[in-house]
Amino acid sequence: MTETTQMARLGAVRPTAEIVAARLKRRHNAERRFRAVGLGAVLLALGFLGVLLFTIVGNGITAFVQTSIRVDVTFDPAQLGIEGDTSADALAAANYQAIIKQALYRTFPEAKTRGEQRQLGAMVSSGADIELRKMLIADPALLGQTRSVWLLADDDIDMAVKGHIPRQPGIAGNRLSDNEIRWLDELESRGAVKTRFNTLLWTSGDSREPELAGLWGAVVGSIYSLIITLLVSFPLGVATSVYLEEFAPKNRWTDLIEVNINNLAAVPSVVFGLLGLAVFLNIFGMPRSAPLVGGLVLALICLPTIIIAARAAMKAVPPSIREAAAGLGASKLQVVTDHVLPLSMPGILTGTILGMAHALGETAPLLMIGMVAFIVDIPATPLDPSAVLPVQVYLWADSPERAFVERTSAAIMVLLLFLALMNLSAILLRKKFERRW
Amino acid sequence: MLRKTMAVAAIAVASIAVAGTAHARDQIRVVGSSTVYPFTTAVAEQFGKTGKFKTPVVESTGTGGGFKLFCAGVGPDHPDISDASRAIKASEIETCAKNGVSDIVEVKIGYDGIVLAAAKRAHHIDVTRQQLFLALAKEVPVNGKLVENPYVTWNQIDPKLPAQKIEVLGPPPTSGTRDAFIELVFEHAAESFPELKELKKTDEKAFKKAFSSIREDGAYIEAGENDNLIVQKLDANPNAFGIFGYSFLEQNEDKIQGSKVDGVAPSFDDIASAKYPVSRPLFIYVKKAHVGQIPGIKEFLAEYSSEKSWGKTGYLADKGLIPLADGERKEWAAKATALETLKK
User: Fold this and answer.
1) For residue A210, which of A197, A218, A219, A201 has the smallest C-alpha distance?
2) In chain A, what are the domain boundaries?
3) Most buried by CB count within 10 Å: which residue of B3, B163, B282, B339?
4) Nearest C-alpha in B relative to A176
5) Does any CB of chain B come closer than 8 Å to the CB of residue A232?
6) How far is A263 from chain B (nearest CA, A)?
């Protein structure tokens, strides 16, 4: 009797097969919905990444080329102010700006007033004299002769050639005056304007003139910092995890240490910067803005990541290997150095590289130790003041000059390239040495 | 493997120990205001190009943060020069003196204008400082009482202003530009309202709070420290106004336009002649005790105060610095050369 009432309650009108089919359909629908949401999330993320990369590349790609202007420069000893004296010192100290200005005035004799001549002189970068100095010192016989030279253009001219500022005359407030636009058009029609690969971006340090600013100082600073980070965090991290994983007794103290290490991985990085300021600068008296201190601070940030990854890799080594080694008479240390460490090394290295990639992108902790600074000279040792790549991005993003907008994006692209290379090497290392049991 | 890692670790520790020993410094170090940073860096670069001295290292720490480092002591571990977008405070001089930094040379380098600007195609307004206060302060006087800011559109403040939502992008509280804007616009405006003037007499603290709070209901949008970002947002949204330093207006005048404040548009000449009301002086402060200890400080000051850098057509003017008047320049250059210290 109970059975019949139950049947009636469940819907006696519908046979069981139909109920099952309907339920199955519902379950399949739920799964499909879930998959669609998951796929949607992935597509959304990809879309954002695409937009990000598109804007960065779109903004920054032009920074890899740089506009130059061809001018016939006369190395006139009188203008250079070195009559009679052709020693290397005199050539180095000569007034190259003067011969550049003279060459421009000769090219456009219609610029008569002081204001016009000022505008004309401003079309060439204030750093263009360095090229001429190099030329003349390499070949002093050029004195008194005229040569056709490609000179670095000013950043505003460069922006106009690349289409970032308007080139139609008569726009109020334009960075370029109508005169400059006319001269630029004329130079272009003579084939005296060209863009070429921007070598300064790769070879010089920071500058307040966008056309002279380069990333090399920051790249060197980043490399020094990361070497220090690696030298400090890798041995410390591996030693810590070997001890905790293989030797340490399991008690309240080791539990406490473990919890703390996991927590440290989540501490905001600026806190490590404050620690670096207090300990490395104030107590140990290390130099401010030095990659050495930056590397030490970044090592602190990396350590938890490395320890967690290394311990996970060691845990994954099967106990049978440890037991077999021990069974053959190996001491505990031998088991670790000869078997556990080599087998877990791919995992440890992957963790290390990911930690380092994280460190490469940090700026906040470096603010505290003075690495967010304008530094022109390329650091020769890790003790010299230096910036790092993300700091350079931050400083350029904050600069008023228009041309720094594209340079910021270019710096981001270089930074992303470094990150991609590091992550790629992590993947390759894992692929090469990974062992499955 | 372990032996090798331990050897590497030992080398690393040893190198740190070596670095830890005291070091002499042969390079000028500058800290301080992010507003002065573009100018000091330009001078530093020119100074470094002469080749006799290393290029000074310039950190952008903010004016207050700069003085904190500057006043921490004498010796190669402490900076030589501090950039400031305001004059040094008495309390800061005191801190300095406490730490042995007694002789400080002050050099006024020029002016900076703070502008209210919008996209070129936007509807431009001519506002007074009072109107700006009414538009942006958290509490404003209405019918003799201080109330939460009720204004939504500009024309509610003055029918002559456009019927357009109040939308202003500006710097966050950590910024020196915001401090200066509050001091130059809000403080000045607040004193012109009888209600607030009354308050100043009875309760100085409440008055200060009233004029230094910016509204938080969405009409004032904190756009971060990056002025380039504000410029881009203005270009995209013609209904919005932005508050930032004059050098950013100068670089982007093909896209944005400065609004008139008290009837004066922010132009190079009007800021230089102090006709434009929202401008402030910029300074650098030099530790006299370091002159002769750190090479090049005197020469750096000479470069800074030369006509080719801070003059009317100097390279700092190209970077957006508003130069001092001719006489003033001479006077401050003389002070810089003579290393004349601040009087207590």
Assistant:
1) A201
2) 65-197, 216-433
3) B282
4) B254
5) yes
6) 25
Q: What is the ipTM of this complex?
A: 0.79
Single-letter residue type at A38 = G
**Residues B121-164: pLDDT tens digits?**
888 788 999 999 999 988 888 877 888 888 999 989 888 888 88
Check if B78 contacts A (Cβ < 8 Å).
no
CA distances from A379 to A281, A344, A386 (A): 19, 36, 6
Q: What is the pLDDT of residues A126-140, one digit of tens each?
A: 888 888 888 888 888
The pLDDT of A40-45, averaged and rounded, is 97
Q: CA B236, B242, B247, B253 torsion: positive or negative?
A: positive
Name residues whose C-beta falls within 8 Å of residue B68's C-beta, 6 or more positions apart in sequence: B95
Side chain identity, residue B169: L
Q: Residue B169 is inside which H or E element, if any?
A: strand B168-170
pLDDT, tens digit, 9 for 90 and up, residues A338-382: 999 999 999 999 899 989 999 999 888 998 898 989 999 999 999
CATH code that applies to domain B26-111+280-338: 3.40.190.10
Whether the Cβ atoms of residue A153 and residue A69 lie closer than 8 Å to each other: yes
A400: nearest CB among B6, B29, B227: B227
Domain B113-279 belongs to what topology? D-Maltodextrin-Binding Protein; domain 2 (3.40.190)
Residue B211, pLDDT > 70, answer: yes
d(CA A108, CA B310): 29
Q: Does B268 touch chain A (CB under 8 A)?
A: no
User: Where are chain B's structural domains?
Assistant: 26-111+280-338, 113-279
pLDDT of residue A367: 87
Give the integer Cα–Cα distance in Å for A291 and A369: 10
Percent of chain B whose predicted confidence (pLDDT) is above 90: 37
DSSP 3-state assignment of B142?
strand
Nearest to A376 among B21, B37, B48 (CB): B48
CB A398 within 8 A of CB B228: yes
Rounded mean pLDDT, A250-278: 90
- Per CB-CB distance under 8 Å, the chain B contacts of A385 are 27, 57
Q: Which CATH class is domain A216-433?
A: mainly alpha
